[in-house]
């Protein structure tokens, strides 16, 4: 019995020691768990603090971005207003300049129209590249073609007098080649009734390319039929006068010859007045 008690006491003692060790280990585990839990709580608090700080920083960044965006929008709005004001002022200035230029052109065209009407001249402008000619104050009774006439004078050959076309073409060609500063030629043009009307055509190249080839020619056509008629009348009058002078000269020569054959001439005496005396007049 004593051995059993001793053994029981030893078992009990060993059990108590194991229990004590277990309690110690359990307490250590609890302390470790508490430490870990405390550390986790601290980390959570730190994370919460960091999160709060980040939120504050994010809020500050957002506020700063909002302020910068507001400043940018304000500057953009101010710049847009200034640009619009400058653009409107520039456009308004360009519009006024354009209106003034159009008015000058309109006034110039009006003065040109009055000048052409007053002089009776026709103004023409020939685009040699497009072959198109435009005419201002065009004489209605002439058969000169309008709009497209090509790049040479062949289109008007049928309405120019055959005796004048070669001279017209020669003068025009010399001017296009730069041999003469401008061309001025008078020729006859067919009218709507089939008659011939004298005109004075003056023209000049107003545009050339880099190689010197003519691109545009402008000029005027003037009705000189009355001048030509006056010249014809004057020529006939001169011919008549020359004929009369020649006839008078012949008559005077005949009279002189007759006087040369007459042996009597009249002399005036300072004392006795007029007396008749014989004279033999020889013509040298």
UniProtKB/TrEMBL annotation:
<feature type="domain" description="PAC">
    <location>
        <begin position="183"/>
        <end position="236"/>
    </location>
</feature>
<dbReference type="InterPro" id="IPR052162">
    <property type="entry name" value="Sensor_kinase/Photoreceptor"/>
</dbReference>
<feature type="transmembrane region" description="Helical">
    <location>
        <begin position="69"/>
        <end position="88"/>
    </location>
</feature>
<dbReference type="InterPro" id="IPR035965">
    <property type="entry name" value="PAS-like_dom_sf"/>
</dbReference>
<dbReference type="InterPro" id="IPR000700">
    <property type="entry name" value="PAS-assoc_C"/>
</dbReference>
<keyword id="KW-0418">Kinase</keyword>
<dbReference type="GO" id="GO:0004673">
    <property type="term" value="F:protein histidine kinase activity"/>
</dbReference>
<keyword id="KW-1133">Transmembrane helix</keyword>
<dbReference type="InterPro" id="IPR000014">
    <property type="entry name" value="PAS"/>
</dbReference>
<keyword id="KW-0808">Transferase</keyword>
<keyword id="KW-0472">Membrane</keyword>
<keyword id="KW-0812">Transmembrane</keyword>
<dbReference type="Pfam" id="PF08447">
    <property type="entry name" value="PAS_3"/>
</dbReference>
<dbReference type="InterPro" id="IPR013655">
    <property type="entry name" value="PAS_fold_3"/>
</dbReference>
<dbReference type="InterPro" id="IPR001610">
    <property type="entry name" value="PAC"/>
</dbReference>
<keyword id="KW-0597">Phosphoprotein</keyword>
<protein>
    <recommendedName>
        <fullName>histidine kinase</fullName>
        <ecNumber>2.7.13.3</ecNumber>
    </recommendedName>
</protein>
């Amino acid at each position: 019995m004593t051995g059993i008690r001793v053994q029981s006491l030893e078992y009990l003692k060993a059990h108590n020691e194991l229990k004590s060790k277990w309690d110690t280990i359990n307490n250590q585990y609890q302390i470790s768990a508490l430490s870990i839990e405390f550390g986790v709580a601290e980390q959570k608090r730190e994370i919460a603090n960091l999160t709060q700080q980040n939120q504050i920083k994010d809020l500050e960044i957002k506020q700063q971005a909002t302020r910068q965006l507001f400043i940018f929008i304000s500057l953009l709005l101010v710049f847009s207003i200034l640009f619009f004001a400058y653009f409107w002022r520039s456009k308004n200035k360009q519009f006024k300049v354009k209106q003034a230029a159009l008015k000058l052109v309109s006034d110039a065209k009006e003065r040109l129209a009055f000048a052409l009407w007053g002089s009776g001249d026709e103004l023409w402008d020939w685009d040699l590249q497009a072959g198109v000619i435009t005419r201002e104050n065009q004489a209605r009774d002439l058969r000169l073609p309008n709009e497209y006439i090509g790049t040479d004078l062949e289109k008007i050959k049928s309405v120019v007098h055959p005796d004048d076309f070669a001279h017209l073409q020669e003068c025009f060609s010399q001017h296009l080649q730069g041999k003469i500063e401008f061309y001025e030629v008078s020729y006859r043009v067919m009218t709507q009734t089939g008659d011939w009307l004298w005109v004075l055509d003056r023209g000049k190249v107003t545009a050339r390319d880099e190689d010197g080839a003519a691109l545009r020619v402008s000029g005027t056509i003037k009705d000189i039929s009355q001048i030509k008629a006056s010249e014809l009348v004057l020529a006939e009058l001169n011919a008549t006068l020359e004929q009369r002078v020649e006839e008078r000269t012949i008559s005077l020569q005949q009279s002189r010859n007759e006087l040369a054959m007459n042996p009597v001439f009249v002399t005036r005496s300072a004392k006795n007045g007029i007396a008749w005396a014989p004279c033999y007049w020889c013509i040298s």
